[in-house]
Amino acid sequence: MKGHHVYRSNFTVGTVFDCEQDPSNTKSHWAIVVKKPGPGEIVGHIPDNLAQILSPLLSSGEVQIMKCEVTGLSTAAAEGVWVQGGGIVIPCTYILLGNKLGKASVLDKLRKWARKKRSHDDAEVQVPIKKEKLKVEE
Asked: In 3D, which of 30, 98, 94, 102 has the Cα closest to residue 65?
């Protein structure tokens, strides 16, 4: 998750947030906000390189619900690695829920994204399947 330095919300490891598209965002066409459940306050954004693949999946309905579970404390990007929007990130697992028929298509798109990401930088990206949920760990 990015943008925590802007919103300064308090949370702990294990906290689960809702994610939704942010069509009013002027900096990114693909923006996805991370917010507290309900009409909750924004706590951050999905990194843009990941939002570029997830936003169309949300728009198409292939992914119907998206959650963000905090898995660690804020960290800086590795030395020498440029991160769009700044180098501070909150490690998260993104949980994607949708219909079973679209699961193979979503997995295929995420795996292609993960392979491309691995070829461009050293970030660890996993796309494991956990029962009814797809999880993207970054």
From this structure: 98
Which amino acid is present at 134? Answer: L
What are the backbone dihedrals phi and psi of residue 57, each rounded to the nearest 5 degrees, phi first? -70, -35
The pTM score is 0.76
Give residue for tokens 């660890």. Answer: 124
- What are the domain boundaries of the chain? 4-137
pLDDT above 70 for 13:
yes
Could you tell me which residue, 77 or 96, shows the higher pLDDT?
96
Which of 2, 91, 71, 105 lies closest to 134, judged by CA? Answer: 105
Q: Are 17 and 35 in contact (CB under 8 A)?
A: yes
Per-residue pLDDT, 85: 53
Q: 3: left (phi > 0), else alpha (psi -120 to 50), else beta? A: left
Cα–Cα distances (Å) from 21 to 26, 59, 78, 83, 96, in that order, read 13, 8, 28, 21, 13
